[in-house]
Structure formats: structure tokens, C-alpha cells
Amino acid sequence: MATKAIAIVAGVGPGTGAAVARKFGAAYPVVLLARNPENYEELVQEINKNGGKAIGISTDVSSEESVKAAFTKINQEYGNAPVAAAIFNASGRFVRKPLLEMSVEDFGAGWHVSVKGAFIFSQATLPGLLKHAEDSDAKHPPTLIFTGATASVKANAQMSGFASAKYGMRALSQSIAREFAPKGVHVAHAIIDGVIDIPRTKEWLKDQPAEAKIGADDIAESYWNLHLQSKRCFTNEIDIRPMLEKW
Amino acid sequence: MATKAIAIVAGVGPGTGAAVARKFGAAYPVVLLARNPENYEELVQEINKNGGKAIGISTDVSSEESVKAAFTKINQEYGNAPVAAAIFNASGRFVRKPLLEMSVEDFGAGWHVSVKGAFIFSQATLPGLLKHAEDSDAKHPPTLIFTGATASVKANAQMSGFASAKYGMRALSQSIAREFAPKGVHVAHAIIDGVIDIPRTKEWLKDQPAEAKIGADDIAESYWNLHLQSKRCFTNEIDIRPMLEKW
Amino acid sequence: MATKAIAIVAGVGPGTGAAVARKFGAAYPVVLLARNPENYEELVQEINKNGGKAIGISTDVSSEESVKAAFTKINQEYGNAPVAAAIFNASGRFVRKPLLEMSVEDFGAGWHVSVKGAFIFSQATLPGLLKHAEDSDAKHPPTLIFTGATASVKANAQMSGFASAKYGMRALSQSIAREFAPKGVHVAHAIIDGVIDIPRTKEWLKDQPAEAKIGADDIAESYWNLHLQSKRCFTNEIDIRPMLEKW
Amino acid sequence: MATKAIAIVAGVGPGTGAAVARKFGAAYPVVLLARNPENYEELVQEINKNGGKAIGISTDVSSEESVKAAFTKINQEYGNAPVAAAIFNASGRFVRKPLLEMSVEDFGAGWHVSVKGAFIFSQATLPGLLKHAEDSDAKHPPTLIFTGATASVKANAQMSGFASAKYGMRALSQSIAREFAPKGVHVAHAIIDGVIDIPRTKEWLKDQPAEAKIGADDIAESYWNLHLQSKRCFTNEIDIRPMLEKW
């Protein structure tokens, strides 16, 4: 089954990334990329145990070498398989600081992962996505999805590094969408506008009902539905917020 | 079955409206509104024949009286049923004219249907949508969807009437989304950016492959997927275009 | 001096309109339009006393007949003069109400003035603006400016009528800009994002410094600077807010 | 006159930068920054000869060290003078390439100058701008202006590096505007949407009239008018295009 299309998820943590990997892993052999193996090991086991197929690769998406090494492994494992879906969910270190107290390194941290990393990941996955686009048996158009945030469209005070990275990733997504849609690749950008319900945000909005946070599984469901869209109906951007979000 | 939730589609023609009615009609008893009965009669028969339940009502959405009369009939038929989904797909007369040659009536034609009509339709359906939001057995959050166009976000020359109506409808959608999301109603606006493949556009883009046009069924599928989103994941805006669209 | 270019300001009240009329009245014979003569009478006297030339005409911009009557008077007074600047500053009744409590008339009130009125005003002034564009002695390109608001780009809850009108006016402005720029007419839209310091808002933000509100004279200054822009540098949109505004 | 406020222009070339330096140099002692001294030497002489005061410093804005060295010189020359205006006009190497042929270095080239450079420049100038904001004798609020492009709001195919940098700079501008406006600093972003008429673009649009290009002097004029705005009227974004531009 070397030619069966695979899905690749970059930025697998305990939230959106894991949910997306689980969802796409139910349909495709799936590759989980994260810097820290702790972030994917359990999930890889879970998917494999449940009849799916998953591998995890420790990868720094901001490093071209690291990503190249990861794709060498992917190709060894899956034999240059076409890519049905590639989801970029990695995010740089979040820094909120008065501008005059922010170091150049702090400022750039977001860019190295969210923009440069997204570029490197796109270059690595697009050949496989194009291969899938040419496969007349492909069930759904190959899909490349980028996870954005409120800061993708609104740059608040003290968020210059984070917001400029998220704006930049959105531009990258739009540029790739315009270049590759005519070749059959569906590129989408998701503006996640709200707090995602993950272990790290457990204490946030505690006094509010569950509908004050975004469900990670619900994001995965929405990404999957983007993947199901036909070549005659590509959505290039969605926003996502919980019903109780102010916007 | 008086309390079973229903779906209401305004602006049923041979394209998006029919596809949406068919899709939602597979899950809910459905009401089809159009000025001209010719636009829904066959489809009503089709849905009823296939085991669904549909009624059509000749309605001018730009007239409060006409919409009130329609809802009196709906309530007679379905006994004040909660509304699971309401889709506003009506559009005013499209006028492309040099500004100085456009009559005030031409200019306002779009607004009367797309904005005032959307407002009247929203007022008529929101009580039923709210009722569904309070129903703990409801499968999916009640959904109110507005069909927009390229002109919802770009106002080209000679399109002042059409574009100002579409911008206005988008504002209405956003305002309602903000007011009713906390009450559990999911409001979404779709920017349909491209030519929809319907009988009327048969001769357009004839020399191009099928992927140059948007599939009406594909739009319906995307609307349905919006409806499936949970209260922890509301998408308030999507864009839709075929893979060969320039944007 | 029948052919000297004039300026026309619609929506003259005690705030922006008056300041704009004063500013443009220092350079051009000026026409002040408002429904209520009380809104322009004093100012007309002031401008005429200070060596300028001004006339006021009671006009309902939402009525084609009323605007036509006004332009008959303007032409009688100024002999079909070219129009150097036309500023649309009128705004419909502001209504903030829960959607389900808003009447169709309330909802439409904004549109009739801000969109239909802006359209009628544009049709009435564009021939004079085009005439000025063809005048090789014209000092500055003819300028048509629309006064928008925060609600031109953000539709908050309970503001559906106001916001859909402001969105619609913005679309109108963009469409006219695209059609008439190649003919030399400079069209601009101003997003006034904050409270303007006028008698009516005296009690608002009282505990805050003067920089919490927008100066009406400052808006007029900015509009004048838009007017000074050359044909090689048209700004089609500006935002304006006081330094203490949150956005 | 050590405390007289100065203006600083980064990215002085034969176009916008030079025009801006000339314009602000007529009112303030001015500092011209460019990597290549050829880009400012003549202009420095011109301004000094015409009764102004100018110095040029060879600076790489993408390097913190280089910018620090430049500001040491500025402080030596002008004695820690307050900064009345700082204009960031530098732009990274423009690369238009299919995504799969673009190197990571090509992709990042824009960011290093347009985003990281803009951040470093902002950090270097904001202390002087804040000093000017506190000076009650200051004629105009201190102004920090960023020069953007069409690609600041539209990311075309094959422009991923350039556009993601321009989007990122726009985010930076908005974030700084929000943080520093309450402290009296006016931050503005200009979307230059069209070809600027400079020696390098002489052969472009040759068959078209002068109004097909943007005048560099006209941009400078618009920037100056932004600088003149009061604390009760800050414009944070303008677009600029020539009258014959399609948009």
C-alpha cells in the first residue's frame, strides 16, 4: 500500500494538533510532527492501536534541515506517498510585552515558526499534495490548512511579534492558495478566534460555561469538512469562535 | 410531529436555493420560499416523493406583509415548529450600469431584497431559531445563513447598487451573529466568489473545464457542514470559489 | 465669476458638516445642504461676513425631488459652476435596538439617508465634478468625500440598520471611486472611529481629556488635505480616531 | 539648538525616501539612513545647501548593531534630540518566484528588512518620539510612518515572501499604533498601491499618461499631512494610488 495517500500534521500538542491528527488519522495513515516526542508518542500508540497507522517524528519546522530529515523518514516509511492533507498547526513562542522591552529575538520568535516554518512545511508537502491532485482516484482534493488566530487579522498592543507572524502566515496561505488552486490543491486558513479548551487553558474562563471555549475536536471536524470540499467549492478562509465569544 | 424542527429556505431558484432545499430537506421538513411558484413546485414534489416533507409558499421577502402571510401558513402547517436552519438566498435584481445612468429605483432594487428582505426574513425566523436553541434535544445548533457574493467585499465600478446591498447584508449578518450567538444561534455569511453552475450560466465560461464554476450542490454541502458545527465552534464567514477562479 | 468652481456640503450640522463648510468655504463659494435651515443659517451668515460666499438650501438628501430642486437653485446661483469638492456628511437616524424590537422602518432609516441619499447626492454632483476634472486650470482634482463611521467596517449587535447602511455607503464610495478616478475625480471614504466633539456629545467622556474625542475642525483639515492630493496620489480611504481611542 | 526635534528617514533611495527626506528636511534637521551612501550623499548636500540640515548614515536596518551605531552618531550630532517624525521606507529584496523554486533565504529576505528592520527602527526611534510627545511646545504630534504596498493587503501568487513581509509590517504598525497613541505618538501605515514614478520604473507603463504612476513627491506631501494631524485626529492608515490605477 505504498501509494496510499497520507496526512501530515505539524505542531501536534495536546490540543488542536492532536485532535486533527486523530480525525485525519481515522481516514489516512498519518504523520505527526512535533519538536518534543512527548507531544505525539501516546497519540501515535493510540491511533495504531485503534486500527489506524501513525508515526511521529521529532521535527523543528523552523529548520529546513530538520524538516528535510523528517521527510526522508516519511518517504522511507510511506514510499513517496501522495499527500491527501497537510495541516500546519505549529506556532511560535507567544510573547506579550511592551514594544520597548521586547528583544529582537523575542520579536522574531513567532516568525521563525509561524511564517518561515509554514513556508518550509509547505515546500515539503506540496510535491506530495500535487501528486494527490493528479491522482484521478483521489477521493477529495488535497488540502493544505494553516491554523491562524485572532492576531491573524487584529494586531493588538504589545503583541507585535505574535501578530506580525500571524499576519505573515495568512499572507503565505493566500499566496499559496492562488498559486496552487489551479493545480487542484485546496489551501485554507483558519482564524481561531477564542480560547481553545486544552489542558493548558483549564484555569481560563473557569466561571463560564463550556461554550466559552473552542473545542479542539470541533476544530478538527471543521478542518475535515474543508478537506471534503470539491474542486468546485474551495473555501480559503474560515473563522472559528465559541458561541460566547465577544468579537 | 408538530414540534419537529423545520428548515426554511428563502430564494429558491434552479441553483443554490434548490440545492440547499434538497440538502436540508433530507434532514428536516422544509419550507421553500420564492416569488414565483414555478421556482419551487417541481422541487416540492420531488422532496415529498422521496420521503421528505416540503411545502412551497409564494413570497416576496422584501415585503413584510408577504413574509408575515408566509409564516402564518408555515405555522399552520408545522405548528409553530422550532427552526433548525434558515437560509437566506434571495438576491435583488442585478444591475450593472454607469452610475450616471442608474435610476434611484435601479440602485435600490438590490437593497430592498438583499438587505431589507434579509432583515424581514431574520425577524421572522429568529423566534423559531431561538426556540430550537433552547431545545436540549436539538441535534445541531440552529443556523441562519446568508448567501453573499464577491460584491460583499469588493465594490467594482458600475456595481454600486448591487455591491452596496451585498455589503449591507454582510453587516446585517455580522450584527445578528453578535447578538444571537450568546443565545445559541449560529449565524454565518458565505462569500460566493465565482460563477455558480446553473442553467442561466450555461453559456458562461463554456470553453473552460467544470472546475471553473461553483457547484450548487457543493455550496449546499458547505452550508450543511456549517449547520453541523457545535456551539464551541461557530464559523461566521466562509468564502467559496472554484479551483480555477482568479482572486 | 459664474464659472468659479464651488464646494457643496450635504449634512451640515453643528459638527463635522459645519467645520467642513467653513474650511472649504475659505477657498470656494460653498453650498450648505441640510434638512433644517437652523443647521446652516448662522454659518452661512458667518462665511459671507468673513469675505466668503455661502448659500444654504433646505434639502432632504433621501429625496430625489428635493435634491433636484436644490441643484436647480445652485445652478441659478452659481451658473452651472464646476464642482471642486462635494462632501457627503449626512447620516440617517441612529437606532440601537435588539433586532426583534426593530421595525422595518427603523431598520431602513439609515439606508434612506446614508446610502440612497449618498447615491442621489453623487449623481447630482458628479456632472459638476467631471466638469472641474476637465478644467485644465483647476488647482486640485475634484473631490467627493463620504463620511463613514466605526460601523462602516464593524457591525455590532443591535446596530444592524446603522451598520448595514454604513457598509453600504462604503461600497458606494468604492464603486464610484473605481468608475470616476480614470476621469479625474478623487473619491474618498473616511472612517470616523470615535466620538466627535460637538455640542450633542458634550456630556460624553466628560471625565477624560480633550484627546478622547475627535475634533470636528481636525476632520475638516484632513478632508481638505485629501482635496489637495494630486492625480498621481489619490487616497481612497482614511481612518480617523483621537489618540485616546481604543480600537 | 541641541534640543530641536529632528526627523529620521530609513530607506532613502531615489524615490519615496528622497522625496520624504526633502519634505521633512524643509522643517526639521533630518537624518537619512540607507545601506549605500550613494543613495543619500547628493541629497544630504542638496538639503544642507538649501539652508536645511541633513546628515546621512550608512545603515543596515535589518541589523540591530548597525542601527545602534547609527543612533550613537545621531545622538552625537543632535544631542539626544526629540524625534518629530520617523519614516520607515526600507524594503527587502523583491522576489517573485514559484513557491517551489524559492529558497528559504529568498523567502525571508523581505522579512529581515521590512518586519525585523521596521521593529528595530521603531525601537530606536520611539524613545525620541515619546520625548517629543511630552514636549508641550511641539508643533505637531510625533509621527511614525511605515511605507507599505499593495502586497500589504493582497498576497498574490509567487509573492509569498514579499507579501508575508508586508502583511507583517502592517501588523507591527497597528500594534505600535495601539500601544503608543495613548502616549501621544501618531503611527500610520501607507498602502502604496501602484507603480511609483522613479528612475528604476521609467520604462514601465511608458505608453500611459503620467497619471498612471504615483508621484514620489506626492507621497511625501501625504506623509507630511499625516504629520500635521492633531492628537484629536490620528489617521492610522491611508491607501495611495494614481488616478489610472485599477484596483
TrEMBL record, chains A, B, C, D:
Superkingdom per UniProt: Eukaryota
InterPro entries xref list: NAD(P)-bd_dom_sf, SDR_fam
Gene3D superfamilies the record matches: NAD(P)-binding Rossmann-like Domain
UniProt cross-references to SUPFAM superfamilies, sorted A to Z: NAD(P)-binding Rossmann-fold domains (SSF51735)
Pfam families: adh_short
Record's protein name: Oxidoreductase, short chain dehydrogenase/reductase family
Species the sequence originates in: Acrodontium crateriforme
